[in-house]
Amino acid sequence: MAHPAGLARESAATALLPFRTLHSLQEVYERILESPDYVMIRSADDLCHCGSGELTKRCHDHNPDGILFRWSKAHAEGESCPSCPTCIGLPATTQLLKVGNHLSLLKPDPLRMKPGTDEYHKQAEFARMAFGLEHGPAVNMDRDLGLLAMSSETSCGKMRAVVALLRTFKAKKQKVHPLSRGST
């Protein structure tokens, strides 16, 4: 019979496998920023490339190929709305915050979303795009809820920052007293 601690280490290593084969937080972040939705948001206040002298957001319809664009209830017919691309600004920011906190947060939360629902499908589609898996084989997109997987420096922006700070303090031979909301 396997030891429970060994089992925990094995399942944590298995849960991290997709992130090891993925690249870095930076690559996921860059892939998201180059997606049609984020390009549309960034270029909205630029002069349109057609030479009309109008801002891009007022000159042409917007790219319906973007995942967030298709998610928006304002685009039920697949056409731009009067607020484009501002209408997808909050969902776009939310997805970037997830990247900064932990890559696993891009995956659907199985405790909040049932597989097969529209919400689950949308979040899984965004995660596949962010991880560069949109054209590959089907991959389990459920979020791993294990503590070891969630606290990995390789996929957690906050842990990466903490590790860098701790290395700085150690190099300067300074003491550190970690606090959290639970310990104050």
Blueprint (SSEs and pairs):
Elements: H1 4-21, H2 25-33, H3 36-43, H4 56-59, H5 67-71, H6 89-101, H7 118-131, H8 147-150, H9 157-171
Quick structural gist:
The chain is built from 9 helices and no strands. It has helices at 4-21, 25-33, 36-43, 56-59, 67-71, 89-101, 118-131, 147-150, 157-171.
Supply the helix-strand structural class: mainly alpha
Which sequence of SSEs, written as H and E, runs from N to C? Answer: HHHHHHHHH
Radius of gyration: 20 Å
Helix content: 40-55%
- Please work out how many helical segments DSSP would assign: 9
Morphology call: globular
Oligomer: single chain
What would you say this structure looks like, in words?
With 184 residues, this protein is mainly α. It has a domain at 22-145. 49% of the residues lie in helices and 0% in strands. The protein is built from 9 helices and no strands. The chain has helices at residues 4-21, 25-33, 36-43, 56-59, 67-71, 89-101, 118-131, 147-150, 157-171. The longest helix is centred in the first third of the chain and has 18 residues, at 4-21. The relative contact order is 0.13.
Which key features would you list for this structure?
184 residues; mainly alpha
